[in-house]
Amino acid sequence: MRTPYDFDPGCTRRASVFTWLAMASVVTTVNLAYAGENFTVSSADFSDGGKIGSRQIFNDAGCKGPNQSPSLTWRNAPATTRSFAITIFDRDAPARGWWHWAVANIPASVKSLPENASASGALRKLGAIEARNDFNIDGYGGPCPPPGNPHRYVITVYALNVDTLPLAQGRPAALFDREISGSTLGSAQITVTYGR
Q: How many Å separate Cα 164 from the centre of its chain?
């Protein structure tokens, strides 16, 4: 079947130029979509891949630390973020791992938490809620692994597509994790270690 381009060689060239421009436009759009910086989290108390700060260690079960939740700062969350959540999980604990902290309903305007935000009441002032961790206490519970190899603690800040999750203070951290997973737009992680 013939097309209009069969009758005018110039049309073929023009069609090729238009096709190339359309493709260039798509490539430019894709590149612009990825031109922004990545969603990241950092702490003044430790660095990714390093050891957790001494002030974050639990104060029980053979550990003698101040048990202060870490300072955290996050940047470049998705533009449509409506709230944030944070978890700290020991991936090397036996069986299913160990939840040290889960926080939800942090307002989207917040970009950092000070050290000890859990015990100091700073999170409550923001309207955030904290889960019951695997030490069976509400709020933050720092690292305190059994003696032996160091454990890895994954700290994750989640950007969520809802203002609040249907959770209540003191519900299990695993339940927080399920609700967070269902509303996540993006996440940023750092991993730190601690051993005795």
A: 16
30-50 pLDDT tens trace: 322 334 589 999 999 999 999
User: What is the number of alpha carbons within 13 Å of residue 54 lying toward its C-beta?
Assistant: 1
Buried b (16+ CB within 10 A) or exposed e, 47-70: eeeeebbebbbbeeeeeebebbbb
- Under 8 Å CB-to-CB from 22, ≥6 apart: which residues? none
Query: Following DSSP, what letter does each residue of 48-89 receive, concatenated?
Result: TTSBPPGGGS-SSTT-----PPPPEEEE---TT--EEEEEEE
Query: What pTM was computed for the model?
Result: 0.81
Q: Which residues, including other chains, have CB under 8 Å from residue 94's CB and lie 6 or more apart?
A: none
Task: Quick: pLDDT tens for 42-71.
Answer: 999 999 999 999 999 999 989 999 999 999
Alpha-carbon dihedral 132, 135, 141, 146, rounded to 10 degrees: -150
Q: 129: which strand partners?
A: 104
CA angle 157, 196, 191 (to 5 degrees): 20
- Residue 113 belongs to what H/E stretch? strand 112-113
**Sole residue written with tokens 């999170």:** 123
Rounded to an integer, what distance in angstroms lies between the CA atom of residue 21 and that of residue 169?
Answer: 55
Angle of CA points 88, 49, 55, to nearest 5°: 55
**Three-class SS of residue 184?**
strand
